[in-house]
Amino acid sequence: MTLRQSMAGLHTWGGLLPSWLLFVIIFTGTVACFDKELEHWMRPPLHEPGREAVMGADDISRWVSTHISAPLHAYWIHGPTDRAPYWHLGWEEDGSGKRGKVMFNPASGQPLPETLGGEFFFTLHYNLHAGQIGMYIVGLTGMFMLVALVSGTIIHRRIFKDFFTLRPHASGQRAWLDAHNLFGVVGLPFHLVLAYTGVAVFVASYMPAGALVAYDGDPLAFYTEAQGGFHRNEMDQPAGTPVSIDGLVTEAGNHWQTGDIGWIVVEHPEDASSVVSIRRLDPSRIGSPQDTLSYDAFTGELLNEQQAPAAYRAYIWMIGLHMAQFGGQLVRILYGLLGLAGCMMLVAGNNVWLRKRASNPSPGMALVRALNTSVFFGLPIASVALLWANRLIPADLPARASVEAGCFIAAWLAIALVALVTRHARPAQTRVLTGVLGLLALGLPVVNYFTTSHGHLLMTPRHAPTLAAVDLVLLAMGIICVWRAGKGRSAAVSPLPTSSQEPA
């Protein structure tokens, strides 16, 4: 048996078995490239143009002391940016480790209505909203993806010729195989890099034993040394009067000669050891700068200037390369298109597997078809349903984000049920679900028009082009899906040619 022959089975089964989970990871990662744009779109109070910011970091700090009664281990703040024009506050309670977050409208100083936001897709991408266990599952799936990519490269002897070959009107298996090869070759370098970096950036979480042994079970000590960071132990003494955080931000900006400031972290805010750490922001670099100034929270004294070691800077560079938080919208669009190519590669590959076995059906084929429909249609439809829920659920509803999550889950389960009930009517099933996705996407900009005063397509092209882009992408997706569904219906009702109509 040759190497190519031995890789064929590995590619087939190593690609099929994790394909549905890989689709979830790649699709949500593609959407997460635009997480901040989606976050902005999902928060209508931010859409009103021309209002000046009246809120600062000190206002956030006062809100924390007024509205959070539990003792805090730390809280962190990020100011408005072009992509995320709101204040972000997060905190962790001391002892319990419970976390919370609130977003603020910088123009009014008021907390924004709760929503899942674009961060929902980012979290689904890297840990499936399942914490540490989910992170392990995603890492294992990423390793399967690397195996499938390498074995696929080996078994395709005409890999560059396949790049220029697409016969959509050929027999079913041939057309799907051409599509699988095309989308696989187009995104091959991208998919290899993203699969590798996706696994590598969490290596310390996947294999923590070495650090725990070397640092006597204290992971914080390991991360502090690896990052070159600064940490001050609690003194168990009452806190003093804090200095102005806005003043410290101004001082840090003068130190770096820039106005771009990233995260502001306040550790042990109720203890005399409290430290305010301010990180520099530079979205033009692949790896976010780790330049951090640490100040005494009560005297304003500069305690430490972080200089990250070279190894940690390389690690951050890999994170930046994977997350596409550099280079502006052009890079994110490129990542998005190549991510969609990865999704289509999986869809085409699973259809090749089914077509090859069509002449010899087995019970496993019904399961594969049901999973294909449930995942390949279910996740996109559920994602659009989440955006519908964001617009239709009242802003003052308690636990609003949980209701949005419930709508997402319910929509996905509904598609899975449809896949099960209509498993014997496959062409009609595909046509109907494609039409449903198209109509939902086409209808959302209309709903957006009636539910927002400044965030709809007629208002946003000038003052907020990224908001307009969300609606335009939905319209384009809707038109393509409705056209495709209509084309499938026309093919289904076309009469078969009679013998007199066949060519001689």
From TrEMBL:
<keyword id="KW-0472">Membrane</keyword>
<keyword id="KW-1133">Transmembrane helix</keyword>
<feature type="transmembrane region" description="Helical">
    <location>
        <begin position="463"/>
        <end position="483"/>
    </location>
</feature>
<feature type="transmembrane region" description="Helical">
    <location>
        <begin position="12"/>
        <end position="34"/>
    </location>
</feature>
<feature type="transmembrane region" description="Helical">
    <location>
        <begin position="366"/>
        <end position="389"/>
    </location>
</feature>
<feature type="transmembrane region" description="Helical">
    <location>
        <begin position="333"/>
        <end position="354"/>
    </location>
</feature>
<dbReference type="Pfam" id="PF03929">
    <property type="entry name" value="PepSY_TM"/>
</dbReference>
<feature type="transmembrane region" description="Helical">
    <location>
        <begin position="432"/>
        <end position="451"/>
    </location>
</feature>
<feature type="transmembrane region" description="Helical">
    <location>
        <begin position="133"/>
        <end position="155"/>
    </location>
</feature>
<keyword id="KW-0812">Transmembrane</keyword>
<protein>
    <recommendedName>
        <fullName>PepSY domain-containing protein</fullName>
    </recommendedName>
</protein>
<dbReference type="InterPro" id="IPR005625">
    <property type="entry name" value="PepSY-ass_TM"/>
</dbReference>
<feature type="transmembrane region" description="Helical">
    <location>
        <begin position="182"/>
        <end position="204"/>
    </location>
</feature>
<feature type="transmembrane region" description="Helical">
    <location>
        <begin position="401"/>
        <end position="420"/>
    </location>
</feature>
